[in-house]
Amino acid sequence: KPLLQLEKVTKIYPPSIRALENISFEVRRGELLFVTGPSGAGKSTLLNLIFGLERPSSGRILYGDLDYAHLRRRDLIALRRRMGFIFQDFRLLPEKTVFENVYLGLEVLGIGGAVARERVERILRRLDLAARRDQRVETLSGGEKQRVAIARAVVKEPELVLADEPTGNLDPERSREILRILEELNAEGITVILATHDENLLRGHHRRILVLPEGRIVNA
Ligand code: ADP
Ligand code: ADP
């Protein structure tokens, strides 16, 4: 049984932007799926739909047996807790420390105290951020910021990580490092969906690639 299933999903933003048209695919548990396509093809829209931030105009999204359309709001929020989201622009709290940014990711889930602190310390060591622990995020390099964002996403111990152009603001070397980290997490069993238009990231990987066609504007 796939972890995630999209069936004929279409997303139209008012009045007539066809961000996604009739997209169907499955993601198996433990898979690393690349999503690519030109700017405007709907990559972000697709990840937002999967995270439940947007609703499809038509079609179905299933997470295991759960049909998003039948979920109550609080169930959708519970589902979201099983996912980690990584953004191109990091979306960290710049004036807070590395530790605080990652810790807050757990606190919002109601996990606090020594258990949470230990989990944060462990992920910071893992992502080579221990030495930056008490530094404010705004003082870090781009690659370090993205590692903090990854730490914040995976400290939740999610089943699924959604990464939206996670290397968009990074140089090629830092980009490869971020990809390596995501591949490592995937090798440990986390399912990863990685949206990117970076050809260099896609090259040489024997992975499934979902290519979204150019977005279209409907003539109403
Ligand atoms: P990508 O991530 O591949 O660049 P997006 O999903 O960001 O593509 O955008 C797909 C299309 O939908 C674009 O034409 C974009 O302008 C439009 N779009 C995205 N989000 C919104 C929104 N919230 N409201 C209206 N149009 C949007
Ligand atoms: P609000 O208008 O309060 O922001 P939402 O539009 O996020 O609420 O959600 C309203 C209802 O739509 C909820 O029952 C929610 O479960 C459902 N919903 C939200 N996202 C999706 C989605 N991607 N697919 C299907 N249903 C959704």
Automatic annotation (TrEMBL):
GO terms for cellular component: plasma membrane. Keywords: ATP-binding, Cell cycle, Cell division, Cell membrane, Membrane, Nucleotide-binding, Transport. PROSITE patterns: ABC_TRANSPORTER_1, ABC_TRANSPORTER_2. One of its GO terms (molecular function) is ATP binding. CDD domains: ABC_MJ0796_LolCDE_FtsE. SMART domains: AAA (SM00382). GO terms for biological process: cell division. Gene3D superfamilies: P-loop containing nucleotide triphosphate hydrolases (3.40.50.300). Its main location: membrane. Belongs to the ABC transporter superfamily. Homodimer. Forms a membrane-associated complex with FtsX. Part of the ABC transporter FtsEX involved in cellular division. Important for assembly or stability of the septal ring. This is Cell division ATP-binding protein FtsE. It comes from Thermosulfurimonas marina.
